[in-house]
DNA sequence: AATCCACACAACCGCCTTGTT
DNA sequence: CAACAAGGCGGTTGTGTGGAT
């Protein structure tokens, strides 16, 4: 079977690796004429020496007009952390709540930024300790950045406008019940009990999750203190050395000084 | 100036699901 | 209902780039 496959590949001399400008142009023009979908047909008829899969990926992750480029905003980062805590590595599902962002981009963000922090602390990124750390230190900081940006650009319309709404302090709210900022979430952040929310690209995620409820009052003192960021000059790290030490120590206590990742 | 290293991101691979015949 | 093809998804790898040494 695999040899047959290989022979097929050779027969059509399928190209691999980075896409050229010419290939991009061909793909864009073909989709402009015939629309998306039927990727294998597209690959055969467009003149591209690529697999249908490759064409699909290139279009969805890079060429599609509504693909957003550039750094993730604090709002987007916050959403990624929040949704990942609920759904785990369901990147495409998470991406549905970040218009213009692809699952690939979100996955890369998680691996390069978030998991990097876990590695530095020598903690499993999926551990409850690390999740707590995200909630106590990182997410409040993002909230802080969001409010700072908000207050400094009152006259400047937000590119991703978040509709004003009534504050939701209902404890049954998915975010408030599972996120428990600053509290120990090790008991109630289980992936087994993910909220069954119907994701929709048209639904405002902040509205859906009641994220407006996460004002400073909702964040515990320790978290807001950290978020206030005494001493954080530029926002490079996600937490200070003190915070990292605290997380690490907590982890040591919980694991009895044992099981660190290498 | 050269080399090394870490990072970010694009692209590929394999598996699974879904739709069609 | 089975077989097959296509699409979708998550994990992994490859590569270009910028900073550090």
TrEMBL record:
Compositionally biased spans, kind Polar residues: 165-187
Domain HTH myb-type, residue spans: 11-63, 64-118
Keyword Repeat part of the UniProt annotation: yes
Localization terms from the record: Nucleus
PROSITE patterns xref list: HTH_MYB, MYB_LIKE, PG_MUTASE
CDD domains: SANT
Main location: nucleus
Pfam families: Myb_DNA-binding
Residue span of region Disordered: 149-187
Alphabetical UniProt keywords: DNA-binding, Nucleus, Repeat, Transcription, Transcription regulation
Cellular component, GO annotation: nucleus
GO molecular function: catalytic activity; DNA-binding transcription factor activity; sequence-specific DNA binding
Span of domain Myb-like: 11-63, 64-114
Family annotation (PANTHER family): MYB TRANSCRIPTION FACTOR-RELATED-RELATED, TRANSCRIPTION FACTOR MYB62
Name of this chain's protein: Transcription factor MYB62-like
Organism of origin: Iris pallida (Sweet iris)
């Amino acid at each position: 079977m695999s040899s047959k496959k290989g022979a097929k590949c050779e027969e059509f001399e399928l190209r691999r690796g980075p896409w050229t400008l010419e290939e991009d142009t061909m793909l864009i023009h073909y989709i402009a004429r015939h629309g998306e979908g039927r990727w294998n047909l597209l690959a055969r008829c467009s003149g591209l020496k690529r697999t249908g899969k490759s064409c699909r990926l290139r279009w969805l992750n890079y060429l599609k007009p509504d693909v957003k480029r550039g750094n993730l905003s604090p709002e987007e980062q916050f959403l990624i952390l929040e949704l990942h805590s609920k759904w785990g590595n369901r990147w495409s599902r998470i991406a549905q709540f970040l218009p213009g962002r692809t699952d690939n981009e979100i996955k890369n963000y998680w691996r390069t930024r978030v998991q990097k922090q876990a590695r530095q602390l020598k903690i499993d990124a999926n551990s409850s300790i690390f999740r707590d750390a995200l909630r106590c230190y990182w997410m409040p900081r993002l909230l802080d950045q969001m409010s700072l940006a908000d207050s400094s650009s009152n006259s400047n319309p937000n590119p991703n406008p978040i509709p004003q709404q009534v504050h939701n302090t209902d404890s049954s709210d998915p975010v408030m019940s599972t996120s428990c900022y600053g509290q120990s979430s090790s008991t109630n952040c289980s992936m087994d009990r993910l909220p069954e929310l119907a994701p929709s690209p048209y639904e405002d995620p902040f509205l859906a999750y009641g994220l407006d409820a996460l004002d400073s009052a909702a964040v515990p003192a320790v978290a807001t203190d950290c978020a206030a960021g005494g001493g954080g000059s530029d926002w490079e790290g996600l937490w200070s050395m003190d915070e990292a030490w605290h997380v690490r120590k907590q982890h040591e206590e919980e694991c009895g000084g044992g099981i660190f990742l290498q």
